[in-house]
User: Which sequence fits this backbone?
């Protein structure tokens, strides 16, 4: 089975959970004999793992050029000259009005630049060239940024389209939906043969707010990979005099950071032996620093900024409690990662991962009293701490990307009529 997959992020360049999920899904699929995935990425860094075919969209020509074969061998990092010429022969319209590079391709900034919608349009154009050139059985598009590309590829090839909803604009905006983004999301869903949602919570949003047929909407929960020996070797903190409670993620409206700060203030009225860490970056970071100061707890609060790679796991290992107070979290991989590191987790009831996690404490995001009680209890009750630490690790060890890959593969077969 050949899968043509469109995605916006992939490790080692990680901007958020989308990269982690894309990696896990493709890793899971790679374990299945006969499955071959081509992952189309705006701007690969060249350090991606080789278990799948990474296709750099900026090397696919959309304007005719006739470069020398030997020169191309040195110029191309992702394609062979033969593949380049093959793509060139399938340019389907005059895109000479576009600002192209020396090989007739469209450049991407990587990540989420200010001209994001223009880049989404360029990605869509290139998808048309790829769909006219490559052979594949099914299309899989991740998140709204690549839905137009998935729809275009389906229209060109007639092959079925699976879209993966990692979040909706209802989650990102607390209901203040961007009409442009909504229309892109809905068009992708309307044209999809199967809609994979990262939780039942997200599935219900898709059904209710995007008016989709429940029969084609499937809850496809995320997972985690076992920690590498290098990450396992990171020692957990031994100092028990002061406990550390951590929020790690984007400091944005969706993640509910203000509830974490307000709950911290309630905890610190009971004890001073706890420090709070808000790791990450986002548009509400300065507001949270001001809130901690106004509540008189700035001396117990730390803002280390955006964490990446090993730093994330060092943060988990140095924490006694992890808190994810999201207002609307389609899934949320972070608590699973924290549990892998032996860190008990508190999550909001508005989090999709709560559908598959039992060995955590769940509170409503707005219930800062309950959140504060949970934090205080884990920090002061050794029995509760040990129970959540040990049983949480057992639980998360059973949630694997291989199982997710098998489920996705079975969905592919059903969509293709192979079973």
Assistant:
């Amino acid at each position: 089975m050949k899968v043509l997959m469109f995605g916006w992020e992939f490790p080692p360049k990680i901007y958020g959970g989308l990269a982690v999920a894309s990696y896990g899904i493709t890793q899971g699929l790679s374990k299945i004999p006969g499955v071959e995935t081509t992952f189309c990425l705006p701007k690969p860094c060249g350090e991606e793992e080789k278990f799948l075919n990474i296709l750099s969209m900026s090397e696919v020509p959309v304007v005719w050029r006739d470069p020398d074969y030997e020169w191309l061998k040195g110029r191309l990092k992702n394609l062979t000259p033969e593949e380049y010429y093959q793509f060139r022969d399938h340019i389907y319209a005059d895109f000479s009005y576009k600002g192209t590079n020396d090989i007739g391709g469209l450049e991407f900034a990587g990540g989420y630049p200010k001209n994001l919608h223009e880049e989404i349009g360029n990605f869509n154009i290139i998808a048309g060239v790829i769909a006219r050139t490559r052979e594949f059985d099914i299309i899989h598009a991740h998140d709204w940024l690549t839905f137009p590309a998935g729809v275009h590829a389906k229209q060109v090839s007639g092959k079925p389209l699976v879209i993966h909803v990692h979040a909706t604009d209802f989650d990102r905006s607390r209901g203040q939906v961007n009409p442009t983004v909504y229309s892109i999301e809905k068009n992708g869903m309307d044209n999809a043969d199967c809609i994979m949602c990262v939780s039942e919570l997200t599935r219900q949003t898709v059904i209710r707010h995007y008016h989709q047929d429940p029969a084609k909407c499937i809850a496809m929960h995320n997972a985690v990979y076992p920690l590498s020996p290098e990450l396992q070797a990171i020692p957990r903190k031994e100092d028990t005099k002061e406990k550390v409670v951590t929020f790690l993620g984007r400091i944005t409206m969706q993640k509910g950071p203000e509830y974490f700060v307000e709950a911290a203030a309630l905890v610190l009225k009971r004890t001073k032996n706890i420090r709070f860490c808000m790791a990450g970056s986002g548009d509400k970071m300065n507001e949270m620093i001001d809130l901690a100061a106004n509540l008189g707890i700035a001396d117990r609060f730390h803002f280390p900024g955006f964490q990446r790679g090993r730093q994330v796991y060092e943060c988990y290992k140095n924490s006694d409690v992890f808190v994810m107070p999201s207002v609307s979290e389609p899934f949320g991989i972070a608590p699973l990662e924290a549990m892998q590191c032996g860190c008990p987790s508190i999550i909001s009831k508005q989090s999709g991962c709560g559908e598959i996690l039992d060995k955590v404490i769940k509170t409503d995001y707005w219930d800062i009293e309950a959140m504060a009680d949970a934090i205080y209890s884990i920090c002061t009750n050794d029995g509760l701490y040990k129970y959540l630490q040990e049983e949480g690790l057992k639980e998360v060890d059973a949630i694997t990307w291989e199982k997710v890959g098998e489920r996705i593969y079975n969905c592919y077969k059903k969509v293709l009529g192979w079973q």
